[in-house]
Design a protein that fits this description.
Layout: H1 2-7, H2 13-26, E1 35-36, E2 39-41, E3 44-46, E4 51-52
Antiparallel strand pairs: 1-4, 2-3
Length: about 55
């Protein structure tokens, strides 16, 4: 809420994500952004570009 109040609506998700990462790091938490999520189909790993927020 703090970030949205400061920046307002309408920005790209990546802007809010960067600010949230900063705030969490400032609070002493470890942050990893946009981690790849593998997809396996019938034992074959596929590169689909999924990323976990």
């Amino acid at each position: 809420m703090k970030i949205h109040t400061a920046l307002g609506p309408g920005l790209l998700e990546s802007s809010y994500e960067a600010c949230l990462g900063y705030e969490l790091t400032k609070a002493g938490l470890k942050v990893e952004r946009q981690k790849p999520l593998p997809l396996v189909y019938e034992t074959v790993p596929l590169e689909c570009g999924y990323r976990v927020d």
